[in-house]
Structures are given as structure tokens and as C-alpha cells.
Fold these 2 entries.
Entry 1:
Amino acid sequence: MALKKESVFDTEKQHHNLDSKIIVAFEKISEVYRVLQWSQAQENKISPIQLQILVFIKYHTPEKCKVGYMARDFNITKATISDSVKTLLSKGYLNKVVDTSDTRSFTLSLTSEGEKLASKVEHYTHELKAPLLDLDASKKEVLFDSLTELIYKLQRNGIIDVQRMCFTCTNYEGDKNAAHYCKLMKTELTKNALRMDCPEHLEVVK
Ligand code: SF4
């Protein structure tokens, strides 16, 4: 069924439409991220994308710490990532490890200065934790469940690219609703145990 194009920002209509209000709420949350990232980055004389790159490299394996992979993961162009990587290399926060089998390809790792900076800036999300801690556990479960489903659908519709979540993993078995099983860990997964960024994630080949 084709979706009727109606602006979610039309306040008259928005007041009576829960979907529109949720979409506007997402926009407000994305503003929170933008503001928090920006202020942490500015304080440390880097850009928000450079902040994201440092934190990403701190927690991901070398085969993912490549310009192309990060561009897909952040949903931005390779050129934008390349520019930020160049700056981080020149500031001494990153090391470049050239692939011996293909000299055009390289992985990135953190220098000791990069480690220090990543450990400092990664806490930019702290302000989001306090209100979440106050939220009732059952509400959090519903929120996580809904977000998991939404992110999966956005990925399936091609809006976002790389996701390392259970629903997009070859090792996942289940109905994406109530029954979840990880073939790798050979274990049932509760809804709360579903992962958003799993190191063992194996992308389903489409
Ligand atoms: S390997 Fe990780 S992402 Fe894949 S199903 Fe198991 S827990 Fe989920």
C-alpha cells in the first residue's frame, strides 16, 4: 500500500497522529546526539566525524577499521571519511597499516594518543544515560524491542547500510518476534539479549 505523503511537521495533523509524533521525537533525539557529539568534539579540537572514527576503531576488529567499511557503517561518503582519517593521521591519533597483498588497501588503528582521546570522547553519550536509568524496566524493554524492529526494517528497505544486529546475521534463527536463537553460541536469546553491535555478526548474503 502506497504511503500517503503528509508532512509530519504539520502541527495541526501531527497532534492527532502518533506515527508523526514518534518521527518528530526521533528528530529531537538525533539533535541530542548532534549537540553532545559536537560539544565533546569541539572541546577536544576534533570534528564529530573524527570522534566517531576514533570510538569506532577502539571497539572494532582491524578488518572493519577501513575507510570503505566505516563509510558504509556511518552512512556517509568515502571521501568524507578519508578527509577525517587524513586529519587524524596528521595529528598522530591513528596508525595506517598497509595490506601486504594490496598496497592500495589499509587498515587503521589507534596510536597511544588516539587511545587516550577515544577513551575520553566516547563518554559523550553520558547525558542520555541518566534519563534512561530513571525509565521503568518494562518501558525500556518495549523501547528496545520497537527500536530493534524499526532499525531492521530501515536496513531491509535500504535506508541504512551495515548493521551488526542479530536480525541481519547468518547465525540468527527465529521469527524476529518472540523466538530468537544464536547458532554460533548455541543458545536461545531473550529479547533483551539480542545484540545491536555483535563482534561475531556474519552478514546475511542477499
Ligand atoms: S552471532 Fe551475534 S549477531 Fe549473530 S545471532 Fe549470534 S549474537 Fe546475534
Entry 2:
Amino acid sequence: MDRDDASGAGRPGAPSPVESAPGAGPAGDLDARLAGALERVGHATRVALWQQAKEHGLSPVQVQLLGRLATAPPARRRVGRLAAELDVTAPTISDAISALRRKGLVSSSPDPADARIQTLELTPEGREVARASAAASADVDAVLAAQPVVAKVDALGLLLDVIAGLHERGVLSVARTCTTCRFFRRADPRAAEAVHHCGLLDAPLPPEALRVDCLEHEPVAA
Ligand code: SF4
């Protein structure tokens, strides 16, 4: 048995180096473990993305682009918007689009309102690869499907607040979530049966209905 095995590190339930770090208070320790858990989930989705990219002879950013182009409305299928949403530079997106064009997976057409702007779209072949690449999230989807609804609703609220905090700090350029939207009216926690509200749709937003990628989202003015 090597030293790592002897310490028990890596075994289910064994404390990680962060968990056993001296001097961490209970709250700080919980934060560190949550951050570690988020990193693990992020790692799993990155690995799945890399696998899909390898399978289709694409780069990870090219796979992400195909996924965005498969679901985004025309106004979001432009180089600048895609660069902001994926938190990469416009030249990186332009290079990826050029490669996808050469492979026959993406085409473009001038915007009817402004011919200088090109709106990107998937070719039938690109749509096929995008559909196959969506399998990258199949494992995460399956694990989530098995979790209790109450826990998922709580987790959704927490993650949306984390996204809002990261957006506020400039780590995420674009966050099309309710908690970063100018129409979001947060429920008063002191009110009985309080529920969030969407000022645009004039509709209640119960915790399970909060959106992660809303078409109507408008950012809070700086
Ligand atoms: S417009 Fe969309 S993102 Fe904004 S509060 Fe309403 S549902 Fe949420």
C-alpha cells in the first residue's frame, strides 16, 4: 500500500486535503467543499465535451459553437454575441467558424435589416453533428433525473445566485438568467408564501421555474 492509500485520500468519504485543512471554520470549510464539488462537475462536463470533440474531429470550442447555433435565435448567432456568450475572443470564434465552414457544418446569410451583419446557421450536416454532440450531457442528465425534485430546486436557486455573483465580478460576461435580469423581482423572504416575479411577463416565478437561458432576458443596467 502506498502513502496515498495509507492516508485514505481518494476513498469515498475520506476527507480531501481541503476538508482537513487546519484553521478553516465550518462555513469556510463548507464553501471550500462546495467549490471543490462544482469543480468536479465542471471537470466531468469538460471531459465529455473533449470526448465529443475528438469523436467528430473538432475542437471543444467548435462543438460548443454547434450547440449554440442549434438553439440560439438569429440575433444571437453572430460572431460578437457568440464570443461574449462563450467568454472567448471574437478572433477565436472567427477562426472556429472558418474551420466549421470548411467542414461544411456552418453557413451564413446577411441580416435582412443590415447586410453588413452575417447571421450564422447550421447546415444539415452541422445539425446532425450538433445533435450527436448533445450526447455529451447524457451522463449528467441521467444522474440529475434520479435526484429528488426538492433538492434540485434548492440547487437551481443556489447555482443561479452563484452565476449572478460571478457575472457581477466580471468572471462571466453573459448570464441570461433570471437572477441577472432587470425584470426579476426577488420575493421578500419575510413575506409568507413569497414568490419571485417576472416584470416582463407579469407572471410569478416559482423557484422551479427560474430560467437559465431566457430569450427575453435583459441585463440590469450598470
Ligand atoms: S424576462 Fe426572462 S430572465 Fe428576465 S425575469 Fe423574466 S423570465 Fe426571468
